Amino acid sequence: xxxxxxxxxxKLVIFQSKKIRRIWNEDEWYYSVxxxxxxxxxxxxxxxxxxxxxxxxxxxxxxxxxxxxxxLPAKDGKIRQTDCVNTKGAFRLIQSIPSKKAEPFKRxxxxxxQDRLDEIGDSFIYFLRLCDxxxxxxxxxxxDKMLKNAEKYPADKAKGNxxxxxxx
Length: 168
Prior knowledge:
Layout: E1 13-15, E2 18-20, E3 22-25, E4 28-32, H1 33-41, H2 46-59, E5 68-73, E6 79-85, H3 87-96, H4 102-134, H5 138-152, H6 155-158
Antiparallel strand pairs: 1-2, 3-4, 4-6, 5-6
Helix pairs in contact: 1-2, 3-4
């Protein structure tokens, strides 16, 4: 898991003035289900609304859950386990909630994804230009670094072992 909990990347995103918490987990964004429900329904009790949807759409039908429990900051400032969905799960959730805001939310979610792709593309272009200016072969540099990492962090010794990497 990429842990960016203290990184600016874990920030609120806004859909029609509604704040939606998100977190980077296992190489993709996860969004708070309760925040999505609040944005789609304007329910005064989005947590209870989600509980009913979860029971009706997933638990009673014995479907695989589309959510995972991740730690997000709550309104009181404490970090709490929160039901979260990735982008694919968010689209499935939207299908489960009758709302006039569903289509605008889908477009908004797609734009958030496109923005992320644009950020990655910009970073990659900068990286390639920097390598070119410095005369660095990025493939060779990456292979060298992987060899160094294999020596420094020996997977065959570390797997299933609680020792810190410096103890090998």
